[in-house]
Amino acid sequence: MNPVQRLIGWEGLLLALLAVIVAVNISYSPYFLGVENIVNLFQLSIEKIIVALVMTLVIISGEIDLSVASVMGLAACVLAWLYPMGVPMPLALLAALASGVLCGLFNGFWIAYVGLPSLAVTLAGLIGYRGVARILVEDRSIGNYPAWFNAIGQEELVGPLTISILVFVVLFVIVAIVLHRSGLGRLIYVIGNSPAAARYSGVKVRRVKMALFVASGFVSALAGLLYAARLGSVRGDMAQGFELDIITMVLLGGVSIFGGSGNFLGVGLSILVILSLRNGMGLANITGNTQTSVIGALLILSVLLPNMAQLIRNKWKGSET
Amino acid sequence: ADAPPPGKELNMVLLPKFLGIAVFDQAHQGAEEAAKELQNPAKLQFLGPTPENSVAGQIEIVTNAATQGVNAIMISNNSGDQIVPAAKAAHDKGIKVVTWDSPIPSAEGEDVFVAQVDFTETGKVMADMALNILGADGGKLAILSASPDAANQNAWNKAFQDILKNDPKYAKLQIVDLVYGDDQSEKSYNQALALVDKHPDLQLIMAPTSVGIVAAAKAMQDEKLCDKIKVSGLGDPTEMGGYAKNGCAPQFALWSFVDLGYLAYYTAYALATGSLKAEEGAEFKAGRLGDYKITKDPTREKGLRILMGPFSVYTKDNLPQ
Amino acid sequence: MRWLQRHVRPEQVRELSLLILIIVAVIIFGSLISGYYTARTFNRIASSVAIITVVAAGQTLVVLTRNIDLSVGSIVGFTAYFTGMIVAANNGLPAIVVVLIAIGMGMAMGIVNGVIVAWGGVPSIIVTLGTLAIYRGLLIDYSGAKTITTESLPKWLVDLPTTELFYIGSIDMRAIVVIAIAVVIVFQLATSLLAFFRRFYAIGSNPDAAALIGLPAQRMVFTAFVLSGALSGLAGFMTLARFGNITVVAAQGLELQSVAAVVVGGVNIFGGSGTIFGAMLGAVMIGTLEQSLFRLGISEFWRDAVLGLLILLAVASDAVILNRLRALWARSGMTLVDKPATLPTTGEATR
Amino acid sequence: MAAGRLVDGRPPDAGLPPVLEMSDIAKRFGATQALEAVSLTLRPGEVHALLGENGAGKSTLIKIMTGVYQPDRGEIRLAGQPVTIGSAAEAQRHGIAAIYQEPLLFPDLNVAENIFISHQGRGAVNNWRKMFRDAADILAALGVSLDVRSPARGLTLAAQQSVEIAKAISLNVRVLIMDEPTASLSAHEVAQLFKLVRDLRQKGVAILFVSHRMEEVFEIADTVTVFRDGRLISTRPRAEVTPQSAIADMVGREVGLLKARPAVAKGDTILSVRNLSREGVFRDVSFDINRGEVLGFAGLIGAGRTDVGLALFGIEPASSGSIMLNGKEISVRSPGEAMAHGIAYVSEDRRQLGLSLPMSIAANISLPVLRRFLTRLGLIRTGEERKTAEAFRKRLAIRTPDVDLAVGKLSGGNQQKVMLSKWLNTHPRLLILDEPTRGIDVGAKAEVHAMIGELAAEGIGILMISSDMPEVLAMSDRVLVMREGRQMGIFSREEATQERVMTAAMGQQEDAAA
Ligand SMILES: Nc1ncnc2c1ncn2[C@@H]1O[C@H](COP(=O)(O)OP(=O)(O)OP(=O)(O)O)[C@@H](O)[C@H]1O
Ligand SMILES: Nc1ncnc2c1ncn2[C@@H]1O[C@H](COP(=O)(O)OP(=O)(O)OP(=O)(O)O)[C@@H](O)[C@H]1O
Ligand SMILES: [Mg+2]
Ligand SMILES: [Mg+2]
């Protein structure tokens, strides 16, 4: 299958899936199409899908960042730690973002310059950064931020849209262009496909990877702050376990875990699929564990079914793959 | 005080911390019982998140419930103040928000908290059990709590620590450590053992969590330490019976979660029908449990509460058959 | 150097370095913690590491084939819970049957993973991310939120974790620990001696070549997942025995722990190299740190931070060492022997 | 086994019943008809050479024999019996083994295991001692001594190739297929290999031998078959074939044999290297390259030539010594710097280091100079990119439907051409070619040589690492010979004869050293 066919195949599938889910949701729940609900549908997972955008780049480059959720938590906790000490809010926010960048640099250093597998490094990060977050806030739950900060996460800004949602939209467009139109995007694919060849072509592989992890750290921190703004208070366990959901979104989008392939249309669609599915099940009063099971099954089937179809087609064409 | 009018069709949601924990299912039974008594034709929704996704899950469920415009939500809050925006939103839409088992610390977005017992009372009960076990000349004890993020746990521990500090009666009881088992048997078990290693002269492990207390008891039994180190705290008699008998846990306390669910339902129903106003001094009759009164919550300045009580302290002699 | 090369293979060097790291760690902790060198400390670490070790052994097999099994945590929890339920219902069951039930359950779930990965051609991380959620979901659904309690279990099972099988000096070897060690020994031998198991390395090392020489890649991958499932099942049984009280959150997060153990243990996450023994060392390393840091009196809240850092250092130090050695190995790898007697005959042909 | 009757070493005779017959085989890949109505017969004790341009279908036919691909049409008979070869495993069971164009080893397994794993029973228990001993013996027979305990990772192509061959002969085969086995071997090793092939022939094994090196084919083959565009053009006994006629069949036109490049007038020195060394890899390499000059690098595999190349290109920077470009001392710490100085390096390993196989031809060609194709905002001007690619496609006659095709889909030779284009696109002043014609057919080879000539004429300095002796002698103005990381001498075009270069490469005393 050439890339074009594959693209149509995969995104087509997701699109069909999305159509079905939306149809079912509409028929089941009168509330689904309500503006309020649509906004909530995004709001409830907005931080995850923001991080999913950068995660896409990281995975296509053949790496992975398991530490994103912990970085989200850490950034929020840095804020929660500084603000009560009387540090002015803007400074506290900058510091929080900086902490994300630092985590990114740290990951990037070990992965790009020392050459450790990202899975190992960011696994350590997953544990370690969460630990630092814990050190900062311990068992406290810290709230009472300035109203304008909470507004960022909660108030509707343009029509019914919150700042978080706008951030997501803008980021989506930017990252999509970077990946599919820019030189950097090209390099990301090449590195994902054949790192050695990239190096032998004078590509600054290390710098690109470093850049990706820093971006990942920064955006995760940003998302963490948006999360804090949305919930209005911060605890040590913030965003714990989000990494799996985020990776699920990216992989369901048809991005190869081995790097080198995948595209943004797919990720966009998979985000819509997962969010509307969750929301639909929520409105149908389906409880948490069933929801996660269904999404788990969906994740598997969405790759399994096309493969099966392909396999059968070949069997019956009698030719090898 | 008069009972709420039966037979009203009210959509109500019962929301536990997360699914799969025995005590919450007992609360569910109680609520169902109340629902039958009050002849509410609408089905009671028992919706919960999965353990690993508790905070985000609870927020999501509350938000969806608001979207569906249910009449009342009963929350055992696991999200500290992070649930506030969601709860507020629901409350602003005229939905009655009742918390039970674990309240919203700031009490924002909450009508009333149905308290199983008085939290300072809890501290006292824990102190008394400790005193009874360790005797007049006291000794060293450590707290094995659930997660650092559980509001009610933290409140209890604080009350416990305060009373030991301030009341000369308990002067000889010394708290040497506070650790968390995250309501996971394995972690609690290992934590208990670790405590033993770290404090050679430890005499009592106080675990105000139904998961933690059994794990601790099992650990002491396995290590044949029961005669040296006792276990106490808040535990489910059906799980703890054995340890009460064999002396590993001579005393522990709990309230009836069935009654708690029952009372929570009555409260929410009464509020939703308007027969009960969420204000200090308001009274109503909750079926078989009799009359209750809404009072200020001493542990939360803005909060209102209904106090269920009482504690039942269990020993090997009064275990339920 | 030459001698070393003859007798030690790179991945063994990797393990040696890790072993040294552990020893150093123990010495440091020993000097900081009074009464550290006791049978008790050993018991603590050993029995807390036992379960994760068994899981990590299965994880290693999977990782060798360039796959990963993130569902192990859910499998362990699932088997622990339902095995518990079954024994609770009929206390009379002979031990061996109980163990087989647990292993069988795990195997079944491993088979599901394996079939989908091997023949469905779905990347393992996707499959097991899915089954991670599904198995746990099923557990919550069918548990009816009951807790398995020590009460309901037969005595032999409750006592198993503390039964001492034999003694080495003052150290008593407990059943759980012995099971783990047995698993490690069996699979270590198998993976180094049996052609069948060597194929795991081949497939992970170069799938294309494996296909060209006709190794049944799909069957091998399938086998790896089944074994991982079975071992998780066994771990489930061990969990039931050790903790007695099983809730639906049992063994949550074990997947990451096992991956951590495997990674620290020097198993190449991209397949092809690493050993069961290494994975065990990885588990021991982490277990030692966790236990000892607590004993050191490091605050609850500091532990994870320190742990994360130490894991990273473990990986880094051993990777650096290994790269050096790899280079050395490669360099002196080949020497083409000169045979002046047979000067190239191609000469004639070109004239 | 058919071979059984021949072990007494009776000379092979065409009268024997064929081991393997393929009739009317066809295979199509999407647009390309890789094979069409091909019929081929292999007899015991016969070395059957298969010639054809890049993309003629040689490898495809081989992959069909070894069960990697299934033919769309046609029949395969083994010792008279019709068979279907469903998988590589089946092919092995039938006694068919193959050595592929690119060696395929298990980097993490040690050499011995690499040799034996393919035919160990599933139930087998490794007896490492015995395995190591047997492996060492087999390699000894090949005249290679490898540490059989060391992992295959990091072996040079040559070393890997030797292991591949050892692997094949360790199973007792009836049909041995060699797809360009000599592509990465030096003359010395080729000689060793051919000894072996002759032994096997004696034992009655049928050997299918694919090579782009005429002289080898005529040295070893009994029968010569020529492919063109997926069709079988001719099958004749060697005696009836001349190089010219074979080439004519291959390309469908007359092509001159490799002829010496006219010496060019010396320009001034571009690059002068002094005492360049890298710890434990190579030492004290010193040479000059003038504008428009081709400096050949000869030596056995593993002599360290590639490493010198890598040092100049900044991949593995030298640890000491000096590099002067146009009289200015420069330091090359990274490929980026090297390219900035106008140095380009065309790798010997196109699959791993040279190209990104899943990416399109155009993307590969633009990669080193991607900047040139970016807008101010850093977006790619795909139109420009494709235009450039098209230009090179014409200039080097790359066989492909279009430049958006993934490079991996091209045949070996065409991939080589794409790699060349990629580096020519950087407009280098100094071009380092590492095995530039490895796996390239005569037609393309001639083109590449012509290209090298042109580039030199344009004033580019060229450093050509090659294990193809005739090529080195014909193309180079001067030849530098390396051996085990040391420079054995530099020979002027006049001094450089086959014998002298060889002797130097083999480490015999050589006074003519410059
Ligand atoms: N047996 C071996 N195992 C691993 N690496 C080897 C071996 N022999 C040589 N090498 C590596 O190969 C390089 C030297 O061979 P190199 O390829 O440079 O020689 P060459 O003359 O370029 O041969 P080739 O014709 O393959 O390019 C060095 O990097 C050396 O480390
Ligand atoms: N997997 C494939 N998919 C599509 N086309 C292919 C594939 N394999 C080979 N081809 C095409 O089939 C034709 C024959 O390729 P093949 O590799 O057999 O040529 P070859 O004679 O081996 O060339 P070379 O001498 O360069 O190795 C080429 O046009 C090639 O592009
Ligand atoms: Mg070929
Ligand atoms: Mg070379």
Could you explain how this protein is built, in words?
The complex is a heterotetramer of chains A (321), B (321), C (351) and D (514). Chain A has 321 residues and is mainly alpha-helical. Chain A has one domain: ABC transporter involved in vitamin B12 uptake, BtuC, CATH 1.10.3470. Chain A has helices at 3-28, 35-43, 46-60, 68-82, 89-114, 118-137, 147-154, 163-181, 183-193, 195-200, 205-231, 242-252, 264-283, 288-317. The radius of gyration of chain A is 20 Å and the shape is globular. Chain C is mainly α. Helix content of chain C is 72%, strand content 3%. The longest helix of chain C has 32 residues, at 300-331. Chain C starts with a helix and ends with a helix. Chain D is α/β, with parallel strands linked by helices. Among the domains of chain D are: 2-109 and 156-251, Rossmann fold (3-Layer(aba) Sandwich); 269-342 and 428-505, P-loop containing nucleotide triphosphate hydrolases (Rossmann fold, 3-Layer(aba) Sandwich), CATH 3.40.50. Chain D has helices at residues 58-65, 88-93, 111-116, 128-142, 157-170, 187-202, 214-220, 243-251, 305-313, 335-340, 350-354, 361-366, 382-395, 412-424, 442-457, 469-475, 498-506; strands at residues 20-29, 32-42, 47-52, 73-78, 81-83, 96-99, 144-146, 175-179, 206-210, 223-228, 231-237, 269-278, 282-290, 294-299, 320-325, 328-330, 343-346, 430-434, 461-465, 478-483, 486-492. In chain D, a hairpin with a 2-residue loop joins strand 4 (73-78) and strand 5 (81-83). Chain D is globular, with a radius of gyration of 23 Å. The chains are: A mainly alpha (321), B alpha/beta (321), C mainly alpha (351), D alpha/beta (514). At the C-D interface, helix 9, helix 10, helix 14, strand 3 and helix 15 of C face helix 2, strand 7, helix 6, helix 7 and helix 17 of D. Strand 3 of chain C pairs antiparallel with strand 7 (144-146) of chain D, so a sheet runs across the interface. The complex binds adenosine-5'-triphosphate (2 copies) and magnesium ion (MG) (2 copies). One magnesium ion binds next to helix 9 of chain D.
**CATH topology call of chain C:** ABC transporter involved in vitamin B12 uptake, BtuC
Percent helix of chain B: 25-40%
Order of helices and strands of chain B: EHEHEHEEHEHEHEHEHEHEEEE
Q: End-to-end span of chain B in angstroms?
A: 34 Å
Second CATH tier, the architecture of chain C: Orthogonal Bundle
Side-by-side strand order of the widest sheet of chain C: 1-2
Class from helix and strand fractions of chain C: mainly alpha
> What's the total count of β strands of chain C?
3
Evaluate the radius of gyration of chain B: 20 Å
Helix segment count of chain C? Answer: 15
* Oligomeric category: heterotetramer
List ligands, each type once: adenosine-5'-triphosphate, magnesium ion
Measured by residues with Cβ under 8 Å of the partner chain's Cβ, the largest interface is: C-D, 51 and 66 residues
Which residues of chain C form runs of ≥5 with pLDDT under 50?
A: 332-351
Shape of chain B: elongated
The secondary-structure element order of chain C is HHHHHHHEEHHHHHHHEH
Strand content of chain C: under 5%
| Count of individual helical segments of chain B | 9
Q: What summary fits the major beta sheet of chain B?
A: 8 strands, mixed
Strand residues, percent of chain B: 15-25%
